[in-house]
Design a protein that fits this description.
By secondary structure, the protein is mainly α. Helix content is 71%, strand content 0%. The protein has 16 helices and no strands. The mean pLDDT is 94.
């Protein structure tokens, strides 16, 4: 689930923190990096659990309807299908998943009233009514309603509030987590350790991310000295801090990561700058990196191999 782009963003943010906080050490930043990487996976587990809790409220709904003095025909016929179907149950009974819920404390401090409100709002939607009215839904229909439920959750203010209260990385990792959630729901009914597919891999986390963090820190001054002459009319001290960090990271990739193609590095940091830096950063970073790349290529300092040879 963790992409190289998300790793680059996390490294960039930590280097910014290191630049702004004199009390932070490199060891502190490495620890924060590893914690941050796993927070993305935790967020995925938390959202799966919230979806499960919303679906589970259907059982409470059955009890409430049955306890009415004068239940309607709808009340009498209502079932907890949203929760009791084979797909949702494959998540509710998955031992490994439930252990992760406990490990990350995903079950603690959940506001039951918010769960009730979210459930009732979804239960009132036309797509949910049609699902509940179906005589014998197929596996595909069970999957479809859970995908609809998740789509509803992501666009629900209460759900967003519950997520953001726990995870400050939601804005940065939203696309990753949403993609993982959809893939998980489409694979239902779930079996075994389905979640392992979305755990951070050593190749991405350590061989790439940790090395990028370490090299950029270790060679900070050397990287700066290579960048400064490429700034043309810009005073290095006037370059936005995030822009300089991105330039150093990109230069580090060009010099020390032989399996990453040059164009991939350039494109990635230009794209990241669109989201995280100033309005003019895209053109600025693109121009500086282009000049850096041409100089390093003339000096035969960019050596690529394997996948890195692909331009």
């Amino acid at each position: 689930m963790i992409s190289r782009r998300s790793v680059r963003v996390k490294v960039m943010q930590l280097l910014y923190m290191l630049n702004r906080d004199e009390q932070l050490t490199y060891s502190d930043v490495v620890q924060l990096y590893n914690e941050g990487i796993w927070k993305t996976f935790e967020l995925y587990i938390f959202q799966l659990y919230l979806l499960l809790r919303v679906a589970q409220y259907a059982e409470k709904d059955v009890e409430i309807r049955a306890a009415k003095m004068v239940p309607t025909e709808e009340d009498k016929n209502f079932t907890a299908r949203l929760y009791k179907n084979p797909c949702t149950q494959s998540l509710a009974t998955n031992v490994g998943f439930l252990q992760l819920v406990t490990k990350y404390n995903a079950h603690e401090n959940i506001d039951s009233e918010q769960i009730r409100q979210i459930y009732q709002a979804f239960n009132a939607t036309e797509v949910c009514k049609q699902y509940l009215a179906s005589n014998e839904p197929t596996k595909e229909e069970h999957i479809k309603i859970l995908l609809e439920l998740y789509r509803f959750l992501v666009n629900n203010d209460l759900f967003t509030e519950m997520v953001e209260d726990r995870y400050s990385n939601w804005d940065d990792d939203e696309s990753l987590v949403v993609g993982a959630m959809k893939k998980t729901l489409k694979a239902m009914p779930l079996e075994g350790e389905f979640y392992q597919e979305f755990q951070p891999s050593d190749e991405t986390v350590r061989e790439f991310g940790e090395q990028l963090l370490r090299k950029t820190c270790q060679e900070d001054q050397a990287l700066f000295e290579l960048i400064a002459p490429m700034l043309k009319n810009w005073d290095p001290d006037r370059v936005a801090i995030l822009d300089m960090i991105m330039l150093k990271m990109a230069l580090c990739e060009l010099l020390h990561f032989p399996t990453i193609p040059v164009k991939v590095t350039l494109n990635e940091f230009v794209e990241i700058s669109k989201t995280y830096s100033t309005e003019n950063s895209r053109e600025f970073i693109n121009g500086v990196l282009d000049r850096l790349m041409k100089r390093l290529q003339r000096e035969n300092r960019i050596v690529k191999e394997g996948r890195g040879l692909l331009e």
